[in-house]
Each structure stands twice: as C-alpha cells, then as structure tokens.
Amino acid sequence: MTKRLIASVLLSLLLPVQAWSADIAAGETKAAMCIGCHGATGNSASGAFPSLAGQHASYLAEQLQDYRDGSRENATMQGMAAGLSDEDIDNLAAFYAAQTLTPKAAGAAHAEGELIYRGGITEAGVASCTGCHGPGGEGNPGAKFPSLAGQYADYTVAQLKAFRSGGRNNDDNKMMRNIAQRMTDDEMQAVADFLQGLQ
After folding, report:
1. CA nearest 53: which of 15, 16, 95, 88?
2. What is the DSSP string of 90-102?
3. Is 98 left (phi over 0), alpha (psi -120 to 50) or beta?
4. pLDDT < 70 positions in the chain
5. What integer pLDDT is reported at residue 17 of this predicted model?
6. Of 33, 89, 93, 31, which is closest to residue 65 (Cα–Cα)?
7. What is the pTM of this model?
8. At what angle do helices 185-197 and 153-165 cross, to 10 degrees?
C-alpha cells in the first residue's frame, strides 16, 4: 500500500465520527434553484443530469467548490455555484446527502460491467473500481470518492469520457483520467450499466 492510500484509509476511518456542521433545512431552501435539473429530492428525471440524492456531503461540497473556483468546468454549474457561500455549499451538500436515491434498473451490458468494476481490465492496466468506490459502489466519504451506485448510466459515461479527454480534470493525481484513458467506449458503457442498477 502506498503512503497516500494508507493516509486516505485512516482519514476515512476518522472523519465519519466528526459532525458535518450544516443546516439541512437551509440546504433544502437553497436547493430550490437546483430543482429544474436535479429534482426536488435530488433524483433527477434525466441521465443528462446526475442524481444527487444520497451522495456523500463531503464529495458534493468539494464539487460545488470546484465549480465555484473554476477547477471543474461546466458553464451552467459554474454560474449556479458562483454566488454560493461556504455555508450555502455545506447546507446544500447536507440536504442532498440526507435524501434517498430512487433505484434504477441495470443497463443491458451490466454483466460485463460487473466484471470490469470488480476485477478491472488487466490487459489495459485498469484496476478494479472497488478499491476507491467500494464493492457496492458506496464510495468513500473520507477520501471524497463518490458513491456511484444508482447513478444514471448516461451521466457516468459522460463523466468517464470527460476524464478521458481531459475536459474534466479535478481528480487528484489524475486518478480518473489515467483510468479512463485506458477504457473503450463499450467498457465505459458496461461499467455504467452495472452501476446504474446497484442499490
């Protein structure tokens, strides 16, 4: 194990005991501006937009901060995040984390996707996804690795392609960029199909 991985694991063990200081009710009020894309409870109606319900507050807060400071590029989200205070971000993250994700059916290539998710792609040098995102796609809040279970396949594929092209580059140490560059479109779709059906 590398020192960085050991530190991430230790941090993830320590962080859950700390309280996330935020106001869920204030987050719900602020989330009124998000309903059009992400739904009233963080369950979006379309794979063009991610479902946020049940996502780790630590990850959501980091992504909103990245949109606000320009580290993650998306014209719509940068505009939405520009006026958010740190407190607003924490409150929004806490609100969405407290919501329940609506289950979805797995996509057509889910069986192949499960093999890739759990075992990686040895010949391409792609490691198993479970190391960071967990065996059930639950992610790691301490390390700010997102939960992927139940996310729309279309959105997951779009993000993998964005990492592959470098259009999304807010991953620490190019972790996701290095993985996505070794994956084909079909492999991305298969993993996304599997993740969509995880609950």
Report:
1. 95
2. HHHHHHHHTSPPP
3. alpha
4. 1-20
5. 40
6. 89
7. 0.89
8. 140
Q: Is the dihedral of CA 103, 175, 184, 130 positive or negative?
A: negative
Amino acid 128 reads S
- Inter-residue long-range contacts of 46-49, CB under 8 Å, 24+ positions, other chains counted: 46/152, 47/152, 47/153, 47/154, 47/155, 48/154, 48/155, 49/155
> How far apart, in Å, are the Cα atoms of 190 and each of 18, 43, 160?
36, 22, 12
CA 39, 36, 30, 67 dihedral sign is positive
Exposed/middle/buried for residue 137 (C-beta within 10 Å: 0-12, 13-18, 19+):
buried
Q: How far apart are CA 39 and CA 46, in angstroms?
A: 10
Please give the structure tokens belonging to residue 74.
């998306």
Tokens read off for 26: 């204030």
Confidence (pLDDT) at 7: 47
Q: How far is CA 75 from CA 24, 66, 78, 113, 165, in A?
A: 26, 12, 5, 31, 18
Q: What is the pLDDT of residues 79-110, one digit of tens each?
A: 999 999 999 999 999 999 999 999 999 999 99
How confident is the model at residue 21, as a pLDDT?
78
